[in-house]
Design a protein that fits this description.
The complex is a heterodimer of chains A (280) and B (293). Chain A is 71% helix and 0% strand. Chain A has 280 residues and is mainly α. Chain A has a domain of 195 residues. The radius of gyration of chain A is 19 Å and the shape is globular. Chain B is mostly helical and 293 residues long. Chain B has one domain: ABC transporter involved in vitamin B12 uptake, BtuC (Orthogonal Bundle). Chain B contains eleven helices and two strands, in the order ααααββααααααα. In chain B, β1 and β2 form a beta hairpin. Chain B starts with a helix and ends in a 14-residue tail after the last helix. The chains are: A mainly alpha (280), B mainly alpha (293). Chains A and B meet through α3, α4, α9 and α11 of A and α3, α4, α9 and α11 of B.
Chain lengths: 280, 293
């Protein structure tokens, strides 16, 4: 098979590897700050719709679309973050799952989002290097963040929020930053995603994808950026790999999830497994 | 007309409340969001369908047997998955992911075993009679559905509030470790809770299957969303709040359809959910204290 026909067959899959890598990184960011937020799929949806509306209905440029696709979910995250981040742990997970449903139902009922039919005929503008560039920039940003004061604040909050606050970390503001940044990354991924899939519908960003994205991070491991990228790639490839199982493909998917949680709780990429942690 | 809608609201709301009650029991006592509750709900309905159509049991026998089946499934999930994670002290997201895996597995198996098409309970289960109270007339089926869910809920709340078992369960909800120190058989009560919650979920599946006259492998997922909505609306802490949340959700849906249109049903209930999240993240009927887990 020559290159161009291979690309014609697999371009969507390759681009999805990158886009879901971004999604896994976005949830890694909030998890690394100890926030069990499941709103990322909804933020991805907001970004996808916002950017598709720019190119489709206002004939705006692709960079403008991606910019709005990144900014819109970040703005929403800022707005809901203040009340919602008062919750923690499972309560936050429930509230953000509820938020995801709200976004889905809104997309289902608004005219500008095309209602239940969604948006069709979105221009195919995403090139492979756009996705690669977004990934590289995001990884660089996350790595820089990790070794900065803010990154250390994330870690402190994840380990013990009360202690972090006693040490003078403005926990509310730091958590809000993680939430908003995660939403921005998810929105960027959504904007890129919308411009190679041609169509968008409200169901794309619901509960199932929220769970898929969480699974990517957990499967890969969240001890560094490599884990989420690996998890994102595996979950994206899984349907292709299990194609031979036909109707029991989903059953295998479910079993794999259970097995990972039971037998590989730190994920596949867990460098700390081999290193003794001081004091633990 | 209005009275009729109030009856419909109570009927739908009480089944939602029954589902939410099982969901919140697991959450309150085991501290786990059990995302397989929707799958158990769906399999409960199929179990009753098989007992009614293949074994030809009468409804009053099929209902408790299907509930026991659903309960055993919940027990299996607790013993095979949740217990392992408890022993390990796994973080909160682990049981969520494992139970979503179980839910995917159940949906897929139901699809393989029973087919994807919508099935129905036999139509002659209940007489086509109406009970009339003044100007309101309630079909016997609807009255039975409401009555059954109310009886199950009242029974549960009574057990939790008034018995020694309930006292032990509330102690575990407060702190499993302290409860164990007091000699409460925590592990056994975790199993019991999983069994009872799943049995209630299965009962809700049967009643929803009757009320909408439809059973399908995919009925669990939307119900799970409603369960989540009910307990966010009501408040996660208490069983009472979950029940009120379920009733509130049912009422919102029925009145949205009556006074607006059916398209706005989910929009209104989830719009309310959003406002509750922003304004009272602890829920409409929850305690005002900040929540952490």
């Amino acid at each position: 098979m020559d290159w161009s026909s291979w690309w014609a067959t697999y371009s969507t899959l390759v681009l999805s590897l990158g886009v879901y890598g971004l999604m896994a990184l976005s949830i890694y960011l909030t998890l690394s700050c100890g926030l069990l937020s499941l709103a990322n799929a909804a933020f991805m949806g907001i970004g996808a719709y916002a950017s598709a509306i720019v190119t489709l209905q206002y004939e705006g440029s692709f960079p403008a679309a991606l910019l709005l696709g990144t900014a819109a979910p970040a703005a929403v995250a800022l707005l809901i973050g203040v009340p919602v981040l008062r919750l923690s742990g499972v309560y936050l997970a429930m509230a953000t799952l509820g938020f995801g449903e709200v976004v889905r139902v809104i997309a289902l009922n608004l005219e500008i989002t095309g209602g239940p039919l969604g948006l069709n005929g979105i221009p195919l503008l995403t090139e492979w290097w756009h996705v690669l560039l977004a990934l590289v920039v995001t990884v660089a940003l996350l790595q820089a963040l990790r070794h900065s004061k803010v990154g250390r604040a994330f870690e402190a909050i994840r380990e013990d929020e009360t202690a972090a606050r006693l040490m003078g970390i403005a926990t509310e503001r730091v958590k809000l930053l993680a939430f908003v940044l995660g939403a921005a990354i998810a929105g960027l991924a959504g904007g890129l995603n919308a411009h190679y899939t041609f169509t968008l519908s409200p169901g794309n960003f619901g509960f199932e994808s929220a769970v898929d994205i969480l699974t990517m991070a957990v499967l890969g491991g969240i001890q560094g950026v490599a884990g989420p990228l690996l998890g994102g790639a595996l979950i994206t490839l899984l349907p292709e790999l299990l194609r031979g199982l036909q109707e029991f493909r989903m059953a295998a998917n479910g079993l794999i999830l259970i097995a990972v949680v039971l037998f590989m709780p730190q994920g596949i990429w867990a460098p700390l497994r081999f290193r003794r942690r001081p004091g633990k | 007309m209005l009275e009729q809608q109030i009856v419909n609201a109570i009927s739908l709301g009480s089944v939602y409340a029954l589902f939410a009650l099982g969901f919140t029991l697991i959450f309150g006592i085991l501290g786990v969001i059990n995302l397989s509750h929707g799958g158990i709900f769906m399999l409960g309905a199929y179990a009753a369908l098989l007992l009614l159509t293949r074994v030809n049991l009468p409804f009053w026998a099929a209902l408790p047997l299907a509930m026991i089946g659903a309960g055993l499934l919940g027990l299996a999930i607790d013993a095979l998955i949740l217990k392992v994670l408890r022993k390990r002290g796994a973080p909160h997201l682990m049981p969520m992911i494992a139970t979503i895996g179980a839910a995917i597995l159940m949906t897929s198996l139901a699809q393989g075993l029973f087919g994807s098409e919508t099935r129905r309970f036999p139509i002659d289960l209940f007489d086509q009679e109406n009970l009339t109270f003044g100007s309101i007339s309630i079909p016997l089926l609807q009255a039975s559905i409401t009555g059954l869910s109310v009886v199950l809920m009242v029974l549960m709340i009574w057990i939790l509030r008034r018995t020694r078992l309930g006292q032990a369960l509330r102690a575990i909800a407060e702190s499993p470790r302290a409860a164990a120190l007091l000699g409460i058989p925590v592990e056994r009560l975790f199993h019991l809770t999983s069994f009872v919650a799943a049995a209630l979920g299965g009962a809700a599946g049967i009643l929803i299957g009757l009320s909408f006259d439809a059973i399908s492998p995919f009925m669990g997922q939307p119900m799970l969303h409603k369960g989540i909505a009910a307990i966010i609306l009501g408040g996660l802490e208490a069983v009472r709040a979950a029940v009120l949340g379920g009733l509130f959700l049912g009422a919102t849906e029925v009145f949205a359809v009556t006074f607006l249109s059916s398209e706005y049903r989910d929009a209104l209930s989830f719009g309310l959910l959003f406002l509750v999240l922003l304004w009272r993240p602890q829920g409409l009927f929850g305690a005002a204290a900040t929540r952490s887990a």
